[in-house]
Amino acid sequence: MINPEFLAKVATDALLQEVNLAPKPGLVDPISVGAHKDMTKDTFYQSIEALRPYLLAYAEAGSRHNGTPLDLFNELRALGKQAEDAMMAATNNINTHKGANFSFALVLGATAHTKWQHSRSLALLPPNDAPPHRSGLCQPRPKRATLLR
Length: 149
Known about the structure:
Blueprint: H1 4-20, H2 41-64, H3 69-90, H4 98-120, H5 132-135, H6 144-148
Helix pairs in contact: 1-2, 1-4, 2-3, 2-4, 3-4
């Protein structure tokens, strides 16, 4: 099972790396505010800190989810609205990560859920030492002459 804390850390690191990447003509980075006169790198740092607990909440929601995909989406959507409110409060209503927040809600929730489901079904997989073509996971590749017929 994948650790929700790990997923949240990876997402947080990605947001930090994005804002710290320079130069990004027209975009906020440590050197310039680009075309965004209302944002600075510090605005992005405040936003990331506000989103951090929600990134974890998305992954935790996915890892414990046991219902339909629509139920998970609705749970992530409700958390996402709370995260957006926290981000807007932290940045004085400056939209720094609205798109990233939505994307990470889906990606983290789905990834954690998929990994959790996968860990429950590991018993169905063949042993690690079984040849792949015998396990049914892949078939032997046809010879070139067969492909040309």
